[in-house]
């Protein structure tokens, strides 16, 4: 499907799919959304010494980058193992045009951005000391066959239910839940009532949180 670069309201860029009339990120701010949903209401709520993150899906790599940015602010006495699923990787031209490293003050981020995108699929790569990334090229429903350590943080960042409703139904959430540890956290930009009910049926404690700019609410869910 054809994609084009668009600039969101916070100055960061996103990809837009014409056929689906769908952005990869919020048009109100790609960077702000990633930091609010996955850092403020995700990574910053986890205190484990070793954090295993599962992301659905890799997309533009922005969520990996904001996670590394936050990780580098810490004392780095912990380890992050980041597993990201993606069926349709973006191309080199799109990577260069998005240029997300320009959003950060750290002069090392151009190199980090390149390492993220040059990392070989299916192979764990240490992007920076203590931060390991494994990109997995697959359909999300192949998750059942993927061997992972117990996941304590899920970035559920699928395309919206309007264009891919099957990604917001019980079968995929069951697969994700099976990979998670007790007390693991799932965070997503969605606040759909059907999603809340599915997660509650799967024995999650669900909490509505303030959404990112342009969105009233989002969901946090802890596996009980």
Give the topology.
Layout: E1 3-7, E2 13-17, E3 22-23, H1 30-40, E4 50-56, H2 62-71, E5 79-86, H3 92-98, H4 109-118, E6 125-128, E7 131-137, E8 151-156, H5 170-179, E9 180-188, H6 193-201, E10 204-210, E11 217-223
Parallel strand pairs: 4-5, 4-8, 5-7, 8-9
Antiparallel strand pairs: 1-2, 2-3, 6-7, 9-11, 10-11
Helix pairs in contact: 1-2
Question: Explain this structure to me?
Answer:
The protein has an 8-stranded mixed β-sheet, sandwiched between helices. The chain contains 6 helices and 11 strands. The protein has one domain (27-223): Rossmann fold (3-Layer(aba) Sandwich). The chain is globular and about 45 Å long. With 224 residues, it is of the alpha/beta class. Helix 1 (30-40) packs across helix 2. InterPro entries: MnmC-like_methylTransf, SAM-dependent_MTases_sf, tRNA_MNMC2. This is Peptidase.
Q: What sort of overall outline do the alpha carbons produce when their principal axes are compared?
A: globular
Low-confidence stretches are: none
Summed up, the helix count is 6
State the secondary-structure class: alpha/beta
Strand content: 25-35%
User: What's the main sheet like?
Assistant: 8 strands, mixed
Distance between the termini: 39 Å
Chain-averaged pLDDT: 96
The radius of gyration is 16 Å
Oligomer: single chain
Strand order of the largest sheet: 6-7-5-4-8-9-11-10
Number of strands: 11
According to CATH, the homologous superfamily is: Vaccinia Virus protein VP39
CATH class term: Alpha Beta
CATH architecture designation: 3-Layer(aba) Sandwich
| CATH topology group | Rossmann fold
Q: Helix content range of the residues, please? A: 25-40%
Series of secondary-structure elements, N-terminal to C-terminal: EEEHEHEHHEEEHEHEE
Number of structural domains: 1
Pfam families: Methyltransf_30
Organism: Chryseobacterium taiwanense
Protein name: Peptidase
InterPro entries: MnmC-like_methylTransf, SAM-dependent_MTases_sf, tRNA_MNMC2
